[in-house]
Task: inverse folding
């Protein structure tokens, strides 16, 4: 799995650095030019305090040369387990349908084990900056089991099929102040270790694109034994 993730992150990073060199970024929602009504249904994992704190230090360094980066507040940082319904402007879910997702996920996760994650190195993406995440087989198994179960029972509308274990730490909301400075900073932090942790709980949430406006629907403990 580590080799596959390395290859995935390398591909994302190449595209991201090409976008940084073009420096034609604009996000009307983050610039507050446009109201953001996009919402989605997601299963996610929170980060422990020590990992969030380490990411916060990296954000501070990035903002020295590029103060107009949108850096995620530490409380908004998360790892996406699965986008059940990708965030969109026309999001709507009846209470009965939401309960069906909740019950289906609860049933499956009762038999799922905790998974471990290591966040190490910053990479660029075409829309922001990511902390690269490496995870244990349990997360892969959980995702595949969820896809299989939901495909039989409920609509699954992922924006893309999640394979990575990254955490988005910043987004480009406007042209960068210093694109070359950002590339230099990323090169210095491409092996920076943010920490390892074990995920023992995942949350079902309705949230916006940036995980800032969040409504927690349920919390599920991962307690199955190996």
Result:
């Amino acid at each position: 799995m580590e080799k596959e993730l390395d290859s995935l992150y390398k591909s994302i990073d190449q595209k991201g650095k090409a976008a940084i060199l073009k420096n034609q970024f604009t996000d009307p929602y983050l610039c507050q030019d446009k109201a953001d009504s996009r919402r989605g249904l997601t299963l996610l994992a929170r980060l422990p305090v020590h990992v969030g704190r380490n990411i916060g230090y990296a954000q501070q360094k990035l903002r020295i040369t590029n103060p107009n980066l949108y850096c995620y507040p530490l409380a908004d940082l998360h790892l996406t387990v699965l986008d059940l319904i990708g965030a969109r402007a026309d999001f709507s879910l009846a209470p009965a349908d939401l309960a069906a997702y909740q019950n289906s996920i609860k049933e499956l996760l009762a038999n799922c084990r905790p998974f471990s994650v290591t966040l190490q190195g910053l990479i660029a993406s075409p829309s922001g900056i990511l902390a690269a995440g490496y995870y244990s087989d349990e997360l892969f198994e959980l995702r595949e089991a969820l896809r299989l179960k939901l495909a039989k029972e409920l609509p699954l509308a992922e924006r893309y099929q999640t394979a990575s274990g990254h955490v988005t730490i910043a987004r480009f909301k406007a042209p960068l102040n210093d694109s070359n400075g950002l590339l230099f900073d990323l090169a210095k932090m491409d092996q920076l270790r943010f920490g390892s942790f074990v995920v023992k709980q995942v949350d079902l949430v309705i949230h916006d694109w940036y995980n800032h406006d969040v409504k927690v629907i349920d919390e599920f403990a991962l307690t199955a034994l190996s």
Observations:
- The radius of gyration is 18 Å.
- The first helix runs from residue 2 to 22.
- The chain has a mean pLDDT of 93.
